[in-house]
């Protein structure tokens, strides 16, 4: 039978608790989605820092679990049928954890939750990330204003879509779910990482700022934002 020791990644990051879900991550908007979900669901996990500064994500051990060299990734020692399961892509991980725990993916509106999860995966994440690149990181050195304006306008549009959908709602799909856990770290990242709130009119939105505040006030969110420790 396959065990954790059969996964090469455990040789670089040895489990501290072999019974817990092994999380390989970094506190980025994508990374904290999974640590927050684990905290909210009350699942035991062992958080391992994958440092971009030392290119941990490019090592053979990490690539053996995620050939796409992106965080986060997990290794669950008690996956389906009791066998260990390795998994990458934050959206897939959120769905898996919700189904494993029976939390934050209610059957009554399952597909509404999934549509907003996909909205984050396909729109919010990529577009916010590109704006961050051209506004706050290496792309800001590019003289041509068109790339930055393209992504600025799209982020502004996506925020307005979200703002409208939140009208009369506390959470994006009605009750708190993995969709909120996917979306809110990116909303936070606009200000914390990219310093772009003014650029996209964040504070002028009617519903989104209070939505993010509600999210950040949750104790499990506050704990998850710090995992794994830098």
TrEMBL record:
Keywords, in A-Z order: Transferase
Organism listed in the record: Cereibacter changlensis JA139
Native organism taxonomy: Bacteria, Pseudomonadati, Pseudomonadota, Alphaproteobacteria, Rhodobacterales
One Pfam family recorded for the sequence: GST_N_2
Entry-linked InterPro entries: Glutathione-S-Trfase_C-like, Glutathione-S-Trfase_C_sf, Glutathione_S-Trfase, Glutathione_S-Trfase_N, GST_C, Thioredoxin-like_sf
Name of the protein in question: Glutathione S-transferase
Domain GST C-terminal: start-end pairs: 106-230
Keyword Transferase: yes
Gene Ontology MF terms in the entry: transferase activity
Ranges that cross the membrane: none
Residues in GST N-terminal domain copies: 18-105
């Amino acid at each position: 039978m396959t065990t954790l020791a059969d996964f090469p990644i455990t040789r670089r990051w040895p489990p501290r608790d072999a019974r817990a879900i092994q999380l390989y991550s970094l506190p980025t908007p994508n990374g904290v989605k999974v640590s927050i979900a684990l905290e909210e669901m009350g699942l035991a996990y062992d958080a391992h820092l994958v440092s971009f500064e030392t290119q941990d994500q490019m090592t053979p051990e990490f690539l053996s679990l995620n050939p796409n060299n992106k965080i986060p990734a997990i290794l669950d020692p008690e996956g389906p049928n009791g066998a260990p399961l390795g998994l990458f892509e934050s959206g897939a991980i959120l769905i898996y954890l919700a189904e494993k725990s029976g939390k934050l993916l209610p059957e009554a509106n399952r597909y509404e939750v999934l549509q907003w999860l996909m909205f984050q995966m396909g729109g919010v994440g990529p577009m916010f990330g590109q704006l961050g690149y051209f506004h706050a990181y290496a792309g800001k050195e590019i003289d041509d204003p068109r790339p930055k304006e393209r992504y600025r306008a799209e982020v502004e549009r996506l925020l307005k879509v979200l703002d409208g959908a939140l009208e009369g709602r506390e959470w994006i799909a009605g009750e708190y779910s993995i969709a909120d856990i996917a979306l809110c770290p990116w909303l936070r990242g606009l200000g914390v990482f990219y310093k772009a709130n003014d650029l996209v009119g964040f504070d002028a939105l009617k519903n989104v700022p209070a939505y993010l505040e509600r999210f950040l006030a949750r104790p499990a969110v506050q704990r998850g934002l710090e995992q794994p420790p830098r």
